[in-house]
Structure formats: C-alpha cells, structure tokens
Fold:
Amino acid sequence: MADTSDGHSQASLNDPRARPRYDMKDVEQEDRFSDTSGVLFEQAMAQTRMAVCLSDPNQPDQPIVFANRAFRRLTGYEEEEILGRNCRFLQGPKTDRKSVAKVREAIESEDVVVVELLNYRKDGTPFWNALHLGPIYDSNGKLLYFFGSQWDVSDVRAARAEERHAREMARELSHRMKNMFSVISGIVNVMGRVRGVETEASEINSRIHALGRAYETTLDEASTGVIDLGPAVRAILEPYTVDEKLKFLGNGAQVPFSAMSLIGLVLHELAANATRFGAWSEGADGQVSLDWQRRDGAVVLTWIETGGPRVDGPPEQKGTGSTIMDRMVAAARGTIERNWKPEGLHAVLTVPVEGDRA
Structure:
C-alpha cells in the first residue's frame, strides 16, 4: 500500500474512522506536553475538583484506565472498583437509552458530545451527570483515549423542573383568571340591564377589563416573583395607543407581581379621564407621555398630558374613579399627586415595593 506524503496510508485517509482528527490533535509544538509538563498535567487531573476519567478505546469494551479523586467522590467507588470497567456500570434502570445512544454514537465517530445522563452511585442513589466526552490523539493522529468529565447537575435539574412547574401553574392560573374576569363581566352586564343601570355597569366593566389586561400579560411571569413593567403597561393601555397620542418613556424596571392590580387600575382611570375630559377628548389633538422608574424602594409612574382643553384647576367634585384610585393607593401605602396645569393633567403615582431590582 503506497504511502502518502504525510506518512499516512491512502486507505486510512479514505476511511473517516481511521483519518486523523486534525481539529482535535493538530496543535503547535509549544502546546504539546513535555515529559515534565505531562507529570504536572497528571497531578492537576488527580487533584482537580472536576470528576475526570480516561477510557482506553484500544482495549476490549473500552475500560476506564484513569479516574481522579473527584470521580471517586462523585460515584462512591474506590479506584480498584473503577479501573478496568466500562463506564456503563454507572447506568441504572431509569437511565435514558436515547442519551446512552448519543454517547455510543460519539464514541463510534470519534466525536465530542455533551449529554446529561441519570447515573447511580455505589449506594444506589441517582444523580444527574452532565457528561462531556471527547477523543484524545497522539501527535500522529492515533486515538489513545476518550476523555470524560462529569458534573453533578442534580440541583440544576431540580431547579429547572420547579421552574417548569411554576410556569405551568402560571398558565393554568392565567386561564382561570381570564374565565373569572369573563364571568364577572357577564354578571355585571346582566345586573346592569335588569336594574336599568347600563351606564354604571359599563363603567364597572371597563375597570374589570383593565385589571384583566394587567393580569393577562403578567401571569406567565408570576413564577419569578417580579415582572417587567414595560410590557405590562403597554398591554394595559393598548386600547388607547392610537397613532402618536401616547408615548412610553419608561426604562426596563421590574416590579412585584402583586403591584400590578393597583398600577393597572390607576392607569385605566387616568386613560379614561383623558378620553372624556383631557388630551384624548373629542376635538382635542393632545398627547400623553408616560414614564416609569424605580427610585428608592418604590416604582414611580409619571403621567403628563399636553394639548388637550385648557385646564383652569382641579374639578369641583371628585369623581368615582378618583375616589377608587385614592383608596387603593392609600391601602398600598403609596401616593398619587395630581397637578392640573393649563396644558393638561400631570400625575405622579408612587408605589412602594420591596427590594431594589431596577
């Protein structure tokens, strides 16, 4: 068989199983271990806290030929119980066969793979193993070992499962809340017609819908305890975002989920007031700017109307909406300041929140 210029047979070059993996073994001379640095490397592998093992693919059943101290601690086996055995001895009844097949395929193709396997310690306790497996070649491209590093990710997997469960519960709660708001709205409509108070029923329903929009866009995030205020505010005011009449100036502040009912209701009342009497009223060509920030343990929303009918001062009588707002804000230990300027209403809502996750 004729030799090629680089010393490999033509047959081996045509065989992907025998062909050297230049991406894995082609390193500069200064990157290769001398005898001294090789000893240092072995000592480092022995002492590192990462579980490491080497298996020999040139022996029958690819036995483990090296396992460091961290590997022994992770699995509970002594060195003499590990060396000479195939790594499958860590598998058990609930180890996923598909994941095992990925490892087998990587070994057959001399490839690198990262996979999570359910493995078992010597005492039978299961743990999730994030296995990183890859081939090791000598300077001539000959496969010498397979390198495996193991990382116990059981806690990570448990956290993922809890997060998925929380999200599923949030979606179910979102569905139930939508149904609840729909039922309440239907009851209000029926009672309004029966008692001849359709106008009052319509006002009540508008507030119900505002609360529904506030919760609908935030329930999916409720599992984290905090929500992004920007998307929630936009959803609450979505019915009023016509052309350039509403400008959002807020940043990426986050607020506790529990604060959204108050924020949603106040924004609805301000928007409804702007539609009836202010910047968005009939015949007006006004604009509303809405800003929100986190400041000193509170979220501050600033509502500024311009371009509406001239304002000569506060209304003579406080409306139902203002009364509702004031009572809810007071119950939340917040404040709402209203300044009736000639160009329109300026209102500042301050809601205290715990923590500082701006």
Remarks:
- Residues 1-34 have pLDDT under 50 and may be disordered.
- Residues 159-224 form one domain.
